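User: Could you go from structure to sequence for me? I need the amino acid at each position, not a summary. Structure tokens:
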């Protein structure tokens, strides 16, 4: 096989269902083990995968398939799919931060350290385009400009979008919750307390001591008699 084909298991499913090729031929073309192809044929592997026609998606020519069908010893050669470049996952380019905003990164890092300590340094570095060394210097106040660093929302600073920020915070919170559950730690956040416990009860109204009122009046009368 000259090129790694796309969707190898789905292709194997189609070849098993639509051709008389041997397991070895299909395995060689799809980059799978012959036993895995046998499992597909027996319905034990990839039972929920829909077959992908390698001829229709441009990864195999009809001539190659015919040659393989005529000779069990023949190994098919894949051709470069015209859809390959479109189907390949696109890797995001490193986040670029304008020079004018790079001085705001420490403020954004401070915001994470202060308000979301559950977010890892790796997540912060990836989101803000900074380094773990810079994050650590902000955290332990060894940064050269520590005296002037203030916690500011990175969205406000224009360093990220609200959607990306929410995604990072949610992912970190979910991971922390799972880790705490494994260790048997009960959440103590105020927002997780029952509503009945967080509602402040109204203070009882002060009752007027009528006896004191009347005694005062009585005292006044006594003074008048004197």
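Assistant: Here is the amino acid at each position, in order:
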């Amino acid at each position: 096989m000259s090129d790694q084909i796309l969707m190898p298991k789905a292709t194997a499913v189609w070849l098993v269902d639509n051709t008389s090729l041997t397991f070895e031929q299909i395995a060689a073309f799809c980059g799978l083990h012959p036993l895995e192809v046998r499992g597909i044929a027996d319905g034990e592997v990839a039972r929920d995968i829909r077959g992908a026609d390698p001829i229709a998606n441009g990864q195999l020519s009809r001539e190659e398939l015919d040659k393989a069908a005529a000779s069990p010893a023949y190994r098919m050669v894949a051709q470069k799919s015209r859809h390959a470049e479109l189907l390949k996952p696109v890797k995001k380019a490193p986040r670029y931060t304008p020079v004018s905003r790079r001085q705001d990164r420490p403020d954004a890092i401070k915001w994470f350290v202060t308000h979301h300590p559950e977010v890892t340094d790796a997540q912060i570095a990836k989101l803000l385009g900074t380094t773990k060394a810079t994050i650590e210097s902000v955290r332990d106040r060894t940064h050269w400009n520590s005296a002037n660093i203030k916690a500011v929302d990175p969205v406000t600073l224009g360093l990220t979008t609200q959607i990306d920020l929410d995604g990072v915070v949610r992912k970190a919170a979910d991971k922390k919750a799972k880790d705490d559950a494994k260790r048997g730690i009960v959440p103590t956040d105020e927002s997780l307390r029952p509503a009945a416990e967080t509602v402040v009860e109204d203070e009882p109204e002060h009752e007027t001591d009528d006896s004191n009122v009347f005694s005062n009046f009585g005292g006044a009368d006594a003074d008048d008699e004197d």
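One structural detail worth keeping in mind: Residues 162-183 form the longest helix (22 residues).
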